[in-house]
Design goal:
Blueprint (H helix, E strand, L loop, with lengths): L7 E4 L9 H16 L3 E6 L9 H13 L5 E6 L4 H13 L3 E4 L3 H7 L21 H10 L4 E4 L1 H5 L6 E4 L9 E4 L9 E3 L7 H11 L4 E5 L6 H10 L6 E5 L19 H6 L4 H5 L5
Parallel strand pairs: 1-2, 2-3, 9-10
Antiparallel strand pairs: 4-5, 5-8, 6-7
Organism: Pelagibacterium nitratireducens
InterPro entries: aa-tRNA-synth_I_CS, Glu/Gln-tRNA-synth, Glu/Gln-tRNA-synth_Ib_cat-dom, GluQ/Sye, Rossmann-like_a/b/a_fold
Enzyme class: ligase
């Protein structure tokens, strides 16, 4: 699959809460560079987490972005409507013997951990289920035990070529350069979760390819996850976008803004009389 000739950027929030200033910065940053490079700005709703994502938050995304003055190309892709695409991608990886079923709980993984952690701070998976026999795997699968599917990173990296990330820094107008990815630091990452037929890593890679995304702009908190994405793109013969990771907007505590921490929402700021101009005046790109 070859990259389209048109430059396409995307902003892809998860509707598990209300957008805050960090989202505003990322969306405005992305639209700024899409316009500067004569490209398209695409909105995607990343709502694979059905338990936490809610329709009211989806609708709030549209309200907030329109209030900020953003415009996007139609249609808006909602991940929850495309699980079949992710199932097909996972099946393709399974058919190559690159995924294996994992039945371990988080508590079991923590108990078996050797102390190593991945870039997100989670324990590196010790490989417990990787060593199950075919019969043991089949018995567990047939028993209905909750299962997730992990990427066999050892097999992926064994004798394979170096994986590279195409990166334009400090902004997307710069010429893209290649740097080595470091997927080994993630261990055997989850590609299909127990509660949904995909994962963030799998769905975002599939969606970027389907939507023809040429440039990915996102916060530095996702810098390390690019390791996994370029590996999946390579394994599934998908194009790899150019990546730019922008700064994070932080609060008074110098920590990044977060829905889970209750950071002030754009809706809350709007209710206080803050205008879109007040917000955009805080940012420079």
């Amino acid at each position: 699959m070859s990259l389209p000739s048109r430059t396409i950027f995307r902003f892809a929030p998860s509707p598990n809460g209300l957008l805050h200033l960090g989202h505003a910065y990322s969306a405005l940053y992305t639209q700024h560079w899409a316009r500067a490079l004569g490209g398209a700005f695409v909105l995607r709703i990343e709502d694979i987490d059905i338990a936490r994502c809610r329709l009211e938050f989806v609708e709030a995304v549209f309200v907030d972005l329109q209030w900020l003055g953003l415009e996007w190309s139609a249609p808006v892709r909602r991940q929850s409507e495309h699980f079949s695409d992710y199932l097909a991608a996972a099946d393709a990886l399974r058919s190559k013997g690159l995924l294996y079923p994992c039945f371990c709980s988080r508590a079991e993984i923590r108990a078996a951990s050797d102390g190593r952690v991945d870039p997100d701070g989670a324990p590196i998976y010790p490989g417990t289920c990787r060593h199950l026999s075919g019969r043991e795997r089949l018995e567990k699968l047939e028993s209905g035990v909750p299962v997730q599917w992990r990427l066999d990173m050892g097999q992926v990296l064994d004798g394979k070529k170096e994986f590279v990330i195409r990166e334009a820094m400090p902004d997307p107008s710069c010429a893209a350069v290649e740097r080595p990815a470091e997927p080994g630091r993630w261990g055997d990452v989850v590609i299909v979760r127990k509660d949904t037929p995909t994962s963030y890593h799998l769905s975002v890679v599939v969606d970027d390819a389907i939507q023809g995304i040429t440039h990915v702009t996102r916060g530095t908190d996702l810098y390390a996850s690019t390791d996994i994405h370029v590996v999946l793109q390579n394994l599934m013969d998908l194009p790899s976008p150019v990546y730019t990771h922008h700064r994070l907007i932080v609060g008074a505590d110098a920590e990044k803004l977060s829905k889970s921490k209750g950071s002030e929402s754009l809706a809350g700021l709007r209710a206080l009389g803050i205008t879109p101009e007040d917000i955009t005046a805080q940012f420079s790109f």
